[in-house]
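Two folds, back to back.
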Amino acid sequence: MTEKFPVSNAFQTFIQEAPEQQKIWMETAQKLGAASKLDGKTEELAYIAVLASARLEGGLPFHVKHAKSLGATRDEIIGAVLVGLPAVGNIVIQALPVALQAFDND
């Protein structure tokens, strides 16, 4: 999956240097995803909004590519990034170039 959806350098280091913790992390994330009542595309869009609001741009390329593969449009990606604008302010606009570059580059 990392080939189709590139992960950040930080996450790649996590995979390589702490494989046991990474395995536990992924198992937990998969269980949380399975428990979600959201469809996959909506969940990815929500996650993109959280990443933008938390200033975690490193995770955006992976999740934007995944959202796109689930049918998300460019406008939906922009909307997801900007949804936090009223709550957290213009910090979310820093995520726009990263998200759009990931969406536009196949």
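---
second:
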Amino acid sequence: MAEGDNIVDRSAFAQLLDEVGPEVMARLLDSFAGEAAARIARFAELSEACSPLGKGGDLHREVHSLKSVAASFGAAALAKRAGELETAVETLQYGHDPATAAELAALFGRFADAVAAHRRTPGAS
């Protein structure tokens, strides 16, 4: 699987695949796609609607959850960016930028594209 720009943590992805198998992994990836989209949309709403409330606030919970689930699936670049945002929210350094949600969505899209390309490769799990 291509790992360009550290989009995919191949080790984390392979570990999860080994643990659950290809059929369950396909279902989990579909679920992850829905969850990531929902979390990014919720992040955008919360970001626009209020100033960050620091650790424990709704904005913090959304970005923390996105970071955690992305890391679990090996979506390295998405997890890294979400982690940066989490730190910014925790330290009250985060400021709303409408482009941030689009950036997160693009990072997820690049991960999904890399996974799809891998799945089309003959012999790939």
